[in-house]
Design goal:
Blueprint (H helix, E strand, L loop, with lengths): L1 H13 L26 E7 L3 H14 L3 E7 L2 E13 L5 E3 L2 E3 L6 H14 L5 E7 L6 E4 L12 E7 L2 E7 L5 E6 L3 E6 L2 H4 E5 L9 E7 L5
Antiparallel strand pairs: 1-11, 2-3, 3-6, 4-5, 6-13, 7-12, 8-11, 8-13, 9-10, 9-12
C-alpha cells in the first residue's frame, strides 16, 4: 500500500500524461478534444496513468472493493448481471436506477487517491463514485444516459478505465449519429454539459476481449 501511495504522489506532483491513444474512430485535432463536438462535451484525456501504475491500481481495487453482482429490472423482469458493481459516496447520498437503490459505502484510500488525481485533470470536485467490474467482453452496457434525479444536471462525470481496452460509444438521440472511442488502460474521459440530455452512451460487448476491466465513474450528486 505504501508503494502505491508513493506512486500516486508522483502522479500528482508531475501530472504525467502519456501519449494520447491512437484510435481509428476519432481524429485528435487538439490535446484534449471534445469528441462529440455538439450538444454537450465528452473530453478525452487519453492515458493519464502508465501501464505499471494502472496495473497496481487495478490490483488494489480488485482486492479492496466490496464488489457485488447487480440486480436490475429490464423489460419488467428482474435479472442479476454478470458484472459486479460498488457504490461509494459521501454520507447522505443514495443512487437509484433500474428500480434499484444503492446506499453508499464509505470511501476507502484506494478510491480517494484516484479521485484526487482525476480532480487535478478536470478541475472539478466529486462526491460519489460508481464502479463496474467487467470480467471480459461478454459483459457490457447497453444504450443509456446518466440522468437520474440524484445527479446534478449538466454536471461533470469523470470515467476512468483500468484493465482491458474497450470501445465506448455515443449515440445522438435525434440524428442517431454514433461516435466511438477506444478507452485504453489508464485512460480518462469526462462527460459534462447537456450531453446526457442529447446523447446516449454504451459499452458494447466484444468476443475479442478476454481480459477484465474496471471502470470508475466519479459523479457530482445531491442528497435527496
Amino acid at each position: 500500500m505504501q508503494q502505491l501511495r508513493v506512486l500516486y504522489c508522483c502522479i500528482f506532483a508531475k501530472k504525467l500524461i502519456n501519449k494520447l491513444p491512437n484510435s481509428s474512430f476519432i481524429s485528435m485535432n487538439e490535446k484534449f478534444p471534445n469528441i462529440i463536438n455538439q450538444d454537450g462535451e465528452a473530453i478525452n484525456y487519453g492515458k493519464i496513468y502508465s501501464d505499471e501504475l494502472s496495473s497496481l491500481i487495478f490490483t488494489e481495487l480488485s482486492n479492496k472493493i466490496s464488489w457485488v453482482n447487480e440486480t436490475v429490472v429490464m423489460f419488467g423482469k428482474e435479472i442479476t448481471t454478470k458484472r459486479k458493481v460498488a457504490f461509494y459516496a459521501n454520507e447522505g447520498i443514495s443512487y437509484t436506477y433500474s428500480k434499484n437503490t444503492k446506499q453508499p459505502l464509505q470511501w476507502i484510500p484506494a478510491i480517494e487517491q484516484v479521485k484526487l488525481a482525476i480532480e487535478q485533470f478536470t478541475q472539478q470536485k466529486y462526491n460519489a463514485c460508481l464502479l463496474n467490474y467487467y470480467h471480459n467482453g461478454n459483459e457490457g452496457m447497453g444504450w443509456h444516459a446518466d440522468n437520474e434525479k440524484e445527479i446534478i444536471p449538466n454536471s461533470s462525470i469523470a470515467s476512468v478505465s483500468l484493465g482491458a481496452s474497450r470501445k465506448f460509444s455515443f449515440k445522438h438521440r435525434v440524428s442517431k449519429e454514433v461516435i466511438s472511442v477506444i478507452l485504453e488502460n489508464g485512460s480518462l474521459i469526462e462527460m459534462k454539459g447537456e450531453i446526457q440530455k442529447h446523447w446516449l452512451h454504451a459499452l458494447p460487448k466484444s468476443l475479442k476481449v478476454t481480459a477484465p476491466r474496471i471502470n470508475l465513474t466519479f459523479r457530482q450528486m445531491r442528497a435527496l
